[in-house]
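agent> Task received from the user: take the single chain below, predict its 3D structure, and emit structure tokens. No templates, no multimer pairing.
agent> Plan: (1) validate residues, (2) run structure prediction, (3) serialize to tokens, (4) report one or two observations.
agent> Step 1 OK, no nonstandard residues flagged.
tool_call: predict_structure(input=
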Amino acid sequence: MIERELKIGSTRFTKTIILDEPGQGNACHEYRIETVPQTESSPIAIVGQISFQNGPIKEFGVNGCHQEDLLFIVLDRLESFQAGIFKCRENAIAITKIQEAIHWLNHRTNDRSKRGVEGKNLI
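)
tool_result: status=success, residues=123
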């Protein structure tokens, strides 16, 4: 297994490790999130692991989550913050952008469905 660190985003407290090479769709499918030691004696802990769908469901069955699943989780968290004491303009903007991302991903899926290629390894 090839492991490499995802070199975008913050690595102050956690880092994301890619666990596989690009596969179906030219994307990686396995990721692990680890703590970044805050001192030399701090242990590294795995705080999450994500397996994305690898290949079309019609050909491979459901074998992982979709990026939309993660967007919905983040959307739920931000909406919860907005309903409490951590409400802020930045969260509101992030919510809008996540909703836009979900919209466009759904648009892509609907387009692929209309063309009869949704769930298949076809363009």
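agent> Step 4: summary for the user.
Residues 66-116 form one domain.
agent> Done.
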